[in-house]
Amino acid sequence: MITVHVICEGQTEEAFVKDLLVEPFAHKGIYLRPSLIGKPGHKGGNFKFERLLVDVRNRLTADKNCYCTTFFDFYGLPQSFPGKNALAANAAITDKATTLQNELIAKLTEALGTDVMRRFIPFVQMYEFEGLLFSDPEKMALGMDKPDLVAEFQAIADKFASPEHINNSPQTAPSKRIIKLIHNYEKPLMGTLAALDVGLEVMRGKCELFNAWLQQIEALEIV
Question: Which Pfam families match (predicted)?
């Protein structure tokens, strides 16, 4: 059995890992252990590098046979986060994600060393968790119990090359687009229900970066 700690930004990401990823990965002999960033009982958010460093150090040094990864949104990162502003806003999402993840590894390696960091897999969701839901706008709407919004969700998805391209400004991030249509949008509940309806395989097929992250985890071997 391979253990992978998944440090999540918030309750929705934690629920997503528990409800959609834990079981299929367990069948592959990989045990995912999601938890919110920070101290137990914390609700997530405020994803500062210093807090992440503590969490990564605690997990990777307490168990030298485990792995650790992250699941947080590019959109929600503070401007001071390593690599957040390394590229222009209109740069390709693959370049943004790679640059940020490489700079994050470099910063963590300064503090933890290369040996420990061999067991760390960085991942940043472009641009936001809700982007994954647009992989299937119809099932997304049905999962949120909003069948009347299928056309609106589909129109949003059709404007972009993929769900991961739905852009990251304060006005047009995926969650902001949803809130404009559903004023009482409850992210942990409605986001998770929609994700369950959309399904993991559909998301993997539509979201290249998300799928590549899961492939990295699937390829892990016992330390």
Answer: DUF4276
